[in-house]
């Protein structure tokens, strides 16, 4: 006897579980918009700061509004001493996503009112986490490399400041713009797994820090944001362009998943992958990494031949791997980069959830036995 409702959907596929005014996705046609503006327009014309304002306020800012928002964000770039001490106490061989998750969780303890959930308080906490997370990732990376922490520079944009804190040298305008495009394209994406996690957590009226911590934990999985690291490992495993075909065909024969392909919602090419492909090609050319781009492009062509009929195309993680490599990032920083940007989306969803909250509490379909006699332990 099953208590199944007819609406059971494995993996919640097709279930509408929230309303949002932030991003719109048409998976069949490969369309993504933030508050109605196409991702292509934002990637080519906007900045990360402006995009975050758009997502959080559901409209583009005027120049004075953008200036004020940018100033507020920059005023939260710096880490307090207690936070720096906690980063220095982390094991140097920790994985950056575990470090980020742990430190973001600990930020609640530097907040005198961590549980305050008014929309105004949530916005303030969101800004603090968004502004502070780049310093956390950069400081942890420098700590594990035995280098001193580089203090943030409030004269720099979100993207320039992160690259400055990571490398201790001022990045070129081209690198900053490339990084900013990555931040814009990763900022929000409907009810993906990590965003859903954040909304589920805040729906208990828990707190912003718990929601962000849970979301980071979700994002690092290889089926979600962790796929960009999987893509890079795959590219590194393929010794040369002529080995792409046998490598991929072997994986297909073994029914292995090809990282950076497939999506629950997109059954066409992910529009973010289209943006990042152009960016990856340019950066690869500029930085002497054309072999990576060419291998990626060859993989895409084979996958199109083999899997387009199943609606499996490149997703956001596929070309972001080459892009991050060309920007000079270590492999295990790729998924943290995704997190730095997606904090904007997670926080926006938390605020939406708090503005019209109802506890998430789905049901299970019990498929076990009934009326089972209790057997005494000596008789089992
Ligand atoms: N390579 C090979 N086959 C694939 C791939 C892939 N990347 N993705 C899906 N398939 C196949 C599955 O094997 C399955 O085949 P079958 O019907 O013959 O058994 C079919 O497509 C459906 O797969 P599901 O896992 O049911 O599809 P789902 O919607 O749950 O999967 C997911 C989405 C998890 C993203 C999947 O496409 C995948 O594992 N991709 C690789 C990991 C990846 O790139 N993740 C990043 C996604 S984007 C993001 O989260 C930011």
List keywords for this structure.
single chain, 380 residues, Citrate Synthase, domain 1, 3-stranded antiparallel sheet, binds acetyl coenzyme *A
Structure description:
With 380 residues, the protein is mainly α. The protein is 56% helix and 3% strand. The model has no long low-confidence stretch (mean pLDDT 96). The longest helix has 26 residues, at 119-144. The chain is built from 16 helices and 3 strands. A 3-stranded antiparallel beta sheet has the order 1-2-3. It folds into 2 domains: 23-224 and 332-355, Citrate Synthase, domain 1 (Orthogonal Bundle), CATH 1.10.580.10; 227-327, Cytochrome p450-Terp, domain 2. The structure holds acetyl coenzyme *A (ACO).
Question: How is this fold's topology laid out?
Answer:
Blueprint (H helix, E strand, L loop, with lengths): L22 E4 L4 E4 L2 E2 H7 L2 H10 L5 H13 L5 H8 L7 H11 L12 H26 L13 H10 L5 H14 L6 H10 L5 H12 L7 H11 L6 H10 L17 H17 L2 H18 L8 H12 L6 H22 L25
Antiparallel strand pairs: 1-2, 2-3
The chain binds acetyl coenzyme *A (ACO).
Acetyl coenzyme *A binds next to helix 15.
């Amino acid at each position: 006897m099953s208590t199944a409702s007819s609406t059971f959907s494995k993996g919640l596929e097709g279930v509408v579980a929230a309303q949002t005014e932030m991003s719109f996705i048409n998976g069949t046609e490969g369309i993504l918009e933030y508050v109605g503006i196409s991702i292509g327009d934002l990637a080519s014309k906007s900045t990360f700061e402006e995009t975050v304002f758009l997502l959080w306020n559901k409209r583009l800012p005027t120049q004075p509004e953008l200036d004020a928002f940018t100033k507020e964000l920059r005023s939260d770039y710096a880490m307090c001493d207690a936070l720096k001490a906690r980063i220095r106490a982390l094991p140097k061989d920790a994985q950056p996503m575990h470090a980020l998750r742990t430190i973001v969780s600990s930020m609640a303890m530097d907040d005198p009112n961590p549980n305050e959930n008014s929309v105004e308080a949530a916005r303030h906490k969101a800004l603090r986490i968004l502004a502070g997370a780049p310093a956390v990732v950069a400081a942890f990376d420098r700590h594990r490399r035995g280098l001193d922490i580089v203090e943030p520079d409030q004269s720099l944009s979100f993207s320039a400041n992160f690259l400055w804190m990571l490398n201790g040298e001022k990045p070129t305008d081209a690198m900053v713009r490339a990084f900013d495009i990555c931040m814009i394209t990763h900022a929000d994406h409907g009810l993906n797994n990590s965003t859903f996690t954040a909304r589920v957590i805040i729906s208990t009226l828990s707190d912003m820090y718990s929601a962000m911590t849970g979301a980071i934990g979700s994002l690092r999985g290889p089926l979600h944001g962790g796929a960009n690291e999987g893509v890079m490992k795959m590219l590194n495993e393929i010794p040369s362009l002529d080995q792409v075909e046998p490598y991929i065909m072997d994986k297909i024969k073994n029914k292995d998943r090809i990282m950076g392909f497939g999506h629950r919602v997109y059954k066409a090419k992910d529009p973010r992958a289209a943006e990042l492909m152009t960016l990856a090609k340019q950066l690869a050319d500029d930085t002497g990494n054309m072999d990576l781009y060419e291998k990626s492009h060859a993989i895409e062509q084979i996958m199109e031949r083999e899997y387009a009929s199943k609606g499996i195309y490149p997703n956001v993680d596929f070309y972001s791997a080459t892009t991050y490599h060309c920007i000079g990032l270590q492999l295990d920083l790729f998924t943290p980069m995704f997190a730095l940007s997606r904090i904007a989306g997670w926080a926006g969803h938390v605020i939406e959830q708090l503005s019209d909250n109802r506890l998430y509490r789905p049901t299970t379909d019990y498929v076990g036995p009934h009326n089972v006699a209790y057997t005494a332990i000596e008789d089992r």
